[in-house]
Amino acid sequence: MKGNTKGLFVTGTDTEVGKTHIAAGLLHLLAQDGSRTAGLKPVAAGLCEVAGRLVNEDVQTLQAASSLPLTDAEVGPYQFATACAPHIAAALEGRRIERATVLAHARALADRCDWLVVEGVGGWRVPLSAVDGSEPRWDSADLAEDLALPVVLVVGLRLGCISHARLTAESVQRRGLPLIGWVANCIDPAMAQAEDNLAALRQTLAAEHRIGCLGVVPWLTPPAPAAVAAHLDRAAVLAALSR
Q1: Domains defined for the chain, CATH in brackets
Q2: Which residues on neighbouring strands pair with residue 182, listed in sequence order?
Q3: Nearest-10 crossing angle of helices 57-65, 19-30
Q4: How far apart are CA 241 and CA 23, in angstroms?
Q5: Within 10 A of 73 (CB to CB), how many other CB atoms are there?
Q6: Which of 18, 103, 177, 231 is the most buried (most CB within 10 A)?
Q7: pLDDT per residue over 205-223, tens digit each?
Q8: In percent, how much of the chain has pLDDT > 90?
Q9: Contact between residue 97 and residue 90 where contact means Cβ atoms under 8 Å apart
Q10: Which active-site residues does the annotation give?
Q11: Are 117 and 27 in contact (CB under 8 A)?
C-alpha cells in the first residue's frame, strides 16, 4: 500500500466475534467529520439469497456503512458460496484467491477514500491458499502485512478470550505491525464473570502489549453501525491512528 494511505485492518481473536459490526462502527465513526470512508472485505465466504440475488451479509454490512457509494464487488472482490474456510470455499468453486489481485483492489479503493477499513477473515491466521503446497502459501496475517495498515483487535467476550487475545496480539506485534488497540465485543450476554474477564484483558494487554481498549460494545440488537460507534471511544481511536 502507498505510504500515505489512512486506514486500519480489523482482525479478531476468532471467527464470529463481531469483526464486521466493529468495522462498520469504525466506518461510521471515521465518517462523522465528513471523511470519505470505504469498507473492504477482501475475502468473504457464505452467500444467502436476498431479493432474488446471492449476497454476503458481511459485504452488505460494510457496503452500507461506507460513506462512499460502493458496489458489492468493490467491497468484496472475492465472495464464495459456501460458508467455510476461504481456501476450502475457493477450491469448491475451482478458484484461487490471488494475492496480487487483492492488493491491487485495495490500492485502487484506497485512492478513492480518506479512510479504508479492511476486515480480515475469521481469526488472525486463516489460510487464503491451498495448504497442500500446490500454490504459494499465504494467510490473513500475510494480507495484513502486505497492506501495512494499523491493526485493531476485536476481542469477542466469551470463555477463552483472554488467552486468544494475548496470543493474537503477540503474533501481530511479532510481525512488526502496529497494533494500536482493541475493542471488547459482548457476543455472549450470559457470559459468567464478564467484568472480571474484561478487567484482566485491560491489564494484560496494556502491560504486555502497551495497547488500550478503544471501546466496549454491549450486546446490541440490532448492532447497527451508529449504535456500535456510540460505544467506541472516538478520541482514543483517532489518537491511536495518529500515532
Answers
A1: 7-242 (3.40.50.300)
A2: 153, 213
A3: 10
A4: 14
A5: 11
A6: 18
A7: 999 999 999 999 999 999 9
A8: 94
A9: yes
A10: 41
A11: yes
What would you report as the CA-atom Rg of the chain, rounded to the nearest whole angstrom? Answer: 17
Cell numbers representing residue 184 in the block: 471488547
All three cell numbers of 94, joined, read: 475451482
| Residue 1 neighbours by CB under 8 Å, 6+ apart | 103, 106, 107, 110, 146, 147, 148, 149
DSSP 103-118: HHHHHHHHTT-SEEEE
Rounded Cα distance, 67 and 122, in Å: 25
pLDDT band at residue 4, thresholds of 50, 70 and 90? Answer: low
H/E stretch holding 10 reads strand 7-12
Per-residue confidence (pLDDT) for residue 243, from 0 to 100: 83
Query: Cβ atoms within 10 A of the Cβ of 33, count?
Result: 9
The answer to whether the CB of 173 falls within 8 A of the CB of 210 is no
- Identify any residues that bridge with 179 across adjacent strands, giving them in sequence order: 151
Q: How confident is the model at residue 5 (pLDDT cuts 50, 70, 90)?
A: confident
Could you tell me the three cell numbers for 159?
470463555
- The pTM of the full predicted model, rounded to 2 decimals, is 0.96
